[in-house]
Amino acid sequence: MNGKIVGIALIGSMAAAGVGMWYAQEYGFYDRIDPDSPAAQVLVQTTSGPVPVNASSFEGIDANSSPLRWRACLRLDGPLPGDVIPFDDPQPLNGPGWFDCYDAASIGSDLESGAAIAILSQPEIRPDVDRILAVYPDGRIYGWHQFNDKTPERGVMD
Known about the structure:
By secondary structure, the protein is an alpha+beta fold. The protein has helices spanning about 1-30, 105-115, and strands at about 30-35, 45, 50, 55-60, 70-75, 115-125, 130-135, 140-145. The strands form 2 sheets. Strands 1-4-5-8-7-6 form a 6-stranded antiparallel β-sheet, covered by helices on one side. The protein has a two-stranded antiparallel ribbon with strand order 2-3. It is elongated, with a radius of gyration of 20 Å. Mean pLDDT is about 90; it is low at about 155-158.
């Protein structure tokens, strides 16, 4: 009988730990970005330097727990500058399931097919991390943070 109690206690604690870890990864660390805050300002890199994007309908999330947790969805209100800097090898990272406007798999497919283009928003937004934007012809923009290839851990040395 004592073995059953210990077994049930172990299974119960493992289930509780699993649910806790899932909740922490999916909800616990993320904060929504206020569209009126300075953190909602999105830039694009041009050959002459950074330029703010004239955009609306900003939805964004971020977390202090990782430099890669920033995600954004917005709509362009006008043309992009003609000299934006394209980004090679964009790899949209998955966001939490509840952040409905952002779908990394769809964005990645659209970048591969040419339905969207990837541009550099901000290099080194955090050490060794760039902010990337996927821009669609209809004005939709999706953004994420991505490691750049400037660190020894990524296999590339300066």
